[in-house]
Amino acid sequence: MKERKLYQKFKDKMRVAEPNSWVYKIPDTFNLGGKKPGDFFCVVYGVPFLIEFKSAKGILTRYQAYQLVDFVNAGGEAMMYQEGKTYMDEFVKKIIEKAKEVKR
Asked: Comparing C-alpha atoms, which of 2, 66, 74 is closest to residue 38?
């Protein structure tokens, strides 16, 4: 599945699972405005997430890994979804559980 379809699937599942969440797809720059830090910003229960999506054969670049770690160091949460490793429903549930855990 192309990453674009993964994005839409994630957005739809997140809106159903937690309607009060905020989900923002970071626009693709095609290297015209610099590299983007990840694919999505998501806020659940006040907890910010940076999310990177990879197709089944995609790999995380060094820059993407750096951005995810930097986001965590700044106080947010970072996650990566790899197609084929887990179902989207499980991934969304994991985000919501992580947000609840952090909010305690």
From this structure: 66
Euclidean distance between CA atoms 54 and 15, whole angstroms: 21
What six digits make up the tokens of 3? 């990453």
| Alpha-carbon span 42 to 99, nearest angstrom | 11
Q: What is the pLDDT along the chain (104 residues), one digit of tens a residue?
A: 677 788 889 999 999 999 999 999 988 877 676 788 899 999 999 999 999 998 888 889 999 999 999 999 999 999 999 988 889 999 999 999 999 998 76
State the Cα–Cα distance between residues 35 and 38, nearest whole angstrom.
9
- Quote the CA–CA distance of 87 and 46 in Å, as a whole number: 24
Q: Give the pTM.
A: 0.88
Which two structure tokens, joined as six digits, stand for 45?
């229960």
